Amino acid sequence: MYKIGIFLFLISSSTSFAQETGKEYQLLWEIKAKGNKKPSYVFGSMHSNDPRLFNFPDSLYTAFASVDAVVLETDVTQIYDQYDVRLNLFNFDLFDKKRSFASSRKATQTVYGSEDGRPQFLDAWFQQTGYCGGKGFYQLETVQDQMKLAENPELFNTRTAINGLFFTKEVFIQTYINGDIASLTNMLKAQFKTAPDAYDELITKRNHVMAKGLDTLIRKRSVFCAIGSGHLYGADGVLQLLRQKGFQVRAVTANYSNSTAATKKLVQSWRSYVVTDEENTFQMTFGGKPIQLEDTGKKHYVYQELGQGNTFELVIHDSPDYLDDNRYSFIENEIAQTREFVLDDGAKGIEGLVMDPIKGYQWKRIIQFGDVCYELICYGGNKFMHSDRPVKFFQKFEILREKE
Question: What residue numbers bound the domain in which 169 lies?
Fold first, then answer.
């Protein structure tokens, strides 16, 4: 995913919005199909968790709340448990017996920003907020499609030319703050001047794929589609291609109110996803919809905050001895001390720090309840590992049955 995140950054620019009521807003567009009473929307996005991106106008919240489904370039949850988005993962200070993990509390950098940004990068925020709000989801491309682009030798070899950058990342961001998608498109073309074939593969051809997919979706339901802002403008941009397919396309004015609008409160309340399992009788609250991995002999749920690089897991083992068999995997030193406990329902528990040879240091809580064992795992960057968020995650788990 590192390749995808870096390689496609320039075609996915987005950031905060100038708060001027009535100013033409070139990032959110209303799309109407003949015969459809409810409009759809296309929004220019960026694969970043920069906090400035989330300063939305009231009109965006209204649009998002009104639709039936969210549409992204791809289903970003498909990369859960496949890629570690933390950069320089093991570039920590030297460990000794008194240090349980990285001694620095400096924010860890990620493919999509850093721990100082929002938990999810913008596209993933839309997807997960939609899930928490009960909306459907569709993708215009598969992760495999994007991987083919990222791993294409010819395109990969042009990355140096593309990322030589006539314009810095911050220049792109500032241009986006102004809502000037025409200038963004011209800047992108300038970046790709020495690699026109790459521009055609990464921008033009994908615009047609996205427009075709939206054509099918919008005629059947109302959607909120977030795609890279570099795909919006121009004769071959998604907006013009939708016009050619008979859709009415207009820019949505950015309005900001002094008080928090009702729809803003509603959308911002969609921040948790509850998994209830009747067979194993537990309930777990995640920050968004987790994926369930196909693990033999156990259930395994994974949720990731791709912006900050944090991972949350729940594994259910059908084993009466799992806790006892794994109690010695915990680290014991002056900082990391294992804690054992007994819950009100009689379940035995143990929690502390473990070291995974691939994923690094992890906070873990194991709860043995009869013949079933629940294993909660979470890990992330420096700030996360030093915070109280692991404890808060553990506290969101609940057993729903009494011990026999």
Answer: 2-266
Residue 224 lies in a domain: yes
Q: How many CB atoms lie within 10 A of CB 34?
A: 8
Helix axes 181-191, 169-177, angle to 10 degrees: 160
The DSSP line for 218-263 is: HTTS-EEEEEEGGGTSSTTSHHHHHHHTT-EEEEPP----SSPPHH
Which residue, 227, 243, 266, sits at the end of a domain? 266
Q: Please tell me what DSSP assigns to residue 201.
A: I
Q: Can you tell me whether residue 287 is helix, strand or coil? A: coil
The stretches of 158-202 forming alpha helices (DSSP H) are 159-162, 169-177, 181-191, 196-199
What does the pLDDT look like over 274-299, one tens digit per residue?
A: 999 877 689 999 999 999 997 777 89
Query: For residue 165, what pLDDT band results from cuts at 50, 70 and 90?
Result: low
**Residue 197, token pair as written in the block:** 């074939």
Centre a 10 Å sphere on the Cβ of residue 123 and count the other Cβ atoms it contains.
Answer: 25
| Same domain as 301, residue 255 | no
